[in-house]
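batch job 7 of whatever, protein = Glutamate synthase subunit beta
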Amino acid sequence: MADPKGFLTTPREEWPRRPVVERVRDWNEVYVPGALLPIVGAQADRCMDCGVPFCHEACPLGNLIPEWNDLVSREDWRAAAERLHATNNFPEFTGRLCPAPCEAGCVLAINQPAVTIKNVECAIADRAWEEGFAPPAPPDRLSGRTVAVVGSGPTGLAAAQQLTRAGHTVAVYERDDRIGGLMRYGIPEFKMEKRHLERRVEQMRAEGTKFRTSTTVGRDVDATELRARYDAVVIATGATAWRELPVPGRELGGVHQAMEYLPLANRVCEGDLPSSPLSAAGRHVVIVGGGDTGADCLGTAVREGAASVTQLDIYGRPGSERDEDAEPWPTYPKLYRLSAAHEEARDLRTAPAADADARLFAASTLRFTGDGEGRVRALHLAEVDSERRPVPGTERTLPADLVLLALGFSGPDPGDGLAARLGLSLEPRGTIARGPDFATNVPGVFAAGDAARGQSLIVWAIAEGRAVAAAVDRFLIDAPTRLPAPIGPYDRPMTA
């Protein structure tokens, strides 16, 4: 604990964002470059080095948060990077994309603003790359065992890196043309520039991990042949089966899933396309769904030059303070939060009819109506009660040339034939069934991440990757593993 009075004398200060009018003209990250390091040392001083640090329990990775806060306060960046990487393969990803349940579990957050754990984490990760504290770590010798990892999202990459460093020969199979999964084509550039992802992939290549892109296991590569070729297989395909909205007019042109829309915008940033075929430019956009994916669509549509953008959330507007009865500390509370995209929509007044920023809360979509050519032109909605039932007499109509459905994901895509071809058992909700050691019903085949857990956070995805790697290593060497297993397959976030 570098400063015993830091939490009393220093107010919380977050990484400042660039002005809205500046950042919506480009796709760069929203934060002011270089503005984090001058403030992060004092912010780390606010950590109380609690005797029982609940931030550890709130983070599924078990990040050693008080330790690296103290090291940052003392400007020992090398040691801080070592402690951070001891539990997290990709802290520059979580430092930008994770909603920080660790901050909700911060003891200081009982009655004060929490320590800016996420910002400190990001500062350490970025400094580690700048100073060369994150070199490739190839194994000293190879085990002679081989592993196929199917899927290159955070779970697949974490599992692959852990297993490669343990000495196994690992190949990652990805159906897209680039590595990264939803981090590549689902997360917009303004939330995480893809150079961070490229840097980690190159590190993994240098360590010995092999990558096979544009390869769909179950279609381009026979799943049973893959199992026969490798000593173990890890299924980490994510939860890509999107949820539908079965209302009248869904068949109209211009109504698309969020994950049909976002990848095209990312491909424009990659230089693959001059413009998106689903660009929001000049169109009235309505986003159905109040989560992070909907916010990603919002920020993307604003940058593409939409005429208006409105986001519908079926839940009521949450409060700005924790409800201690319903969501007591240290659980992660549902609060009214202003993301960068919502801040932009608020300042630019993209949705004059919205309750706040671009959002309409407690709103349910009833139907879509179109023009004579079969294209959507309006969305009809109604307010809902506490049971999410439409309230009579509250129907409204919004102009809509482009509707984006951001309703979440139910499980892995059944269309690739992977589960059926391997004979994997599924849970009733469609996720892959597994035992306490992450093993499926097929010997040598393991399942991890959203494909088995269901839709979750990036920090849980990385924790799953590290944990399944430990299970696979134990299976391959038939002995206790030295790899850490931060979670079990049945662990869940803290709830009241």
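notes: The radius of gyration is 23 Å.
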